[in-house]
Design brief:
By secondary structure, this protein is α+β, with helices and mostly antiparallel strands. Strand 7 and strand 8 form a beta hairpin. The chain is built from twelve helices and eleven strands. The protein has a domain of about 230 residues. Pfam families: RepSA (PF20199).
């Protein structure tokens, strides 16, 4: 703590007052008194307060494409610690709330564009007139669990409060089918793929068309997200839409109605199965969807509360979550013995993880142990069909181009990206140098992230008032 001598007792007292430990507080003082603190804070601010930034070393040189004259040069040698810190980009809110916020915002705009249209994202506004529903497909029962029925009490005889940790856990740990539960999670992605195949077959059958001819009349698009129930089973929420033969820009045929979409989704869910062959002491299993299939028209009469914005916000919210609701960890488990070191791990969740490890030796190709922290689930949390709307990559590129225009303006280059690329040559070399924060840096990064979030909230509320719309209609990504 050069230049800022503080007695040990004072450090302990100040740390306690700030809600930190003495080691974190001492490191915080070190960072705050570093001559490069302002530049470090600027770097972290540009990452949005990232919890685990990537550290890079290297340099870039921008030259005139014709004369080879150096127009701009940058090196990390002048940065704090000789490193440039960039956002980690992790989608999980449990790992990095800042980067997860950005990911959720991109997902929101991707999903909403496929519901209401957005010419900037190559989806015309007329897509609102296409049949579109919000569907939920769930896992079957693997045994009774503690719940809160609409009427009466749980089977255990207790009326559980909403935040009771017992909710979703097995009534009888000895009879609950943990093996099938984790196998179902593990095959959920394949089951969804089978569902999309049968969905198109059901539409073709009702239209009196062959499957090959269906694409000449209409196409099915979807955007979905996975969500973990408290019992540890994955279920999927999806926006499903019928377009014309050329995608969202073309109208579907008159016979393609919302009612037909409701019927074919339920029929396809009932038909979709995945067979898990017998192995060792485990018998053959035929996995399918649960009987609870929910299909709701978006914004239709009787479903006015299910607005386009509400659906997009709901999907975006769960795109940043994983299996944390079950009490599991958000990192891979290297060996089963690690469970003994975890405090507060629910017995139900522990049984699911143990089932993954037990089945891993029997079904090695399913990588169940590797994905035991996800209770066997190994699919993508958010996916979409090719023609549903724009892509996350395209949205990130828009953001990158915006930042590039800002930098070109600051350096006096051509405003147009194409003109700049045509007249300049950029040579860059980057090397990975680590990641993360020291304890004091972490505390300061959280403070920066909170300030950024507060500023965004204030700006959102101001814009909400200006547009005279509901404050929650656009989620957190207005």
């Amino acid at each position: 703590m050069t230049g800022f001598p503080v007695p040990p007792d004072a450090v302990t007292a100040q740390a306690s007052a700030m809600g930190t430990d003495p080691i974190t507080f001492a490191d915080l003082l070190r960072v705050a008194n570093d001559p490069d603190f302002d530049r470090w804070r600027e770097q972290i601010g540009r990452t949005g307060g990232c919890s685990d930034p990537i550290h890079l070393t290297g340099q870039t040189v921008t030259r005139d494409a014709k004369t080879r004259e150096v127009l701009y040069a940058y090196s990390t040698e002048q940065e704090p610690g000789g490193r440039l810190r960039v956002a980690c980009g992790n989608r999980r809110a449990s790992r990095c709330p800042s980067c997860a916020w950005t990911y959720a915002g991109d997902t929101y705009h991707l999903i909403r564009a496929g519901i209401s249209g957005d010419e900037r994202k190559d989806v015309p506004d007329t897509v609102r007139d296409h049949p579109r529903v919000f569907a939920t497909l769930t896992a079957p029962s693997f045994g009774p669990v503690h719940n809160r029925p609409d009427r009466g009490v749980c089977r255990c005889g207790i009326s559980h409060v909403e935040d009771d940790p017992a909710l979703g856990t097995a009534l009888n740990l000895g009879t609950y089918d943990y093996a099938e539960a984790v196998l179902w999670n593990n095959h959920a992605g394949q089951l969804w793929q089978r569902f999309t195949i049968y969905l198109r077959r059901e539409i073709a059958a009702r239209a009196g068309l062959s499957q090959g001819a269906l694409s000449e009349h209409c196409r099915v698009s979807f955007g979905k997200v996975a969500e973990f129930q408290k019992r540890g089973a994955v279920h999927f929420h999806a926006v499903v839409r019928i377009d014309g033969p050329d995608g969202p820009a073309s109208m579907p045929p008159a016979w393609a109605t919302t009612q037909l979409l409701d019927e074919v989704i339920r029929a396809a869910a009932a038909r979709s199965t995945v067979t898990v062959p017998s192995a060792g002491r485990f018998p053959e299993r035929i996995l399918g969807w649960g009987t609870q299939v929910d299909v709701q028209p978006i914004g239709a009469f009787g479903h006015e509360e299910l607005t386009e914005q509400a659906v997009a916000s709901y999907v975006a919210k769960y795109a940043t979550k994983a299996a944390e609701t079950t009490g599991t960890v958000d990192r891979r488990i290297g060996e089963l013995a690690e469970l003994d070191k975890l405090s507060g791990l629910p017995a139900h969740t522990r049984r699911l993880i143990e089932a993954c490890w037990a089945l891993d030796a029997v079904y090695p190709d399913r990588l169940l142990a590797r994905w035991s922290h996800m209770l066997g689930f190994r699919g993508h949390f958010s996916t979409k069909s090719r023609r549903y709307s724009t892509t996350l990559g395209a949205l990130r590129q828009v953001r990158a181009d915006y930042r590039a225009r800002q930098e070109r303006h600051e350096r006096g280059f051509a405003e147009d990206l194409d003109d700049t690329e045509a007249s300049t040559l950029v040579l860059a070399h980057w090397t990975y140098a680590g990641h993360g924060h020291t304890p004091g840096e972490s505390w300061l990064a959280q403070t920066i992230a909170r300030d950024i979030h507060l500023n965004r909230e204030v700006a959102r509320e101001a814009l909400t008032d200006q547009l005279d719309i509901s404050s929650d209609s656009e989620g957190d990504w207005l």
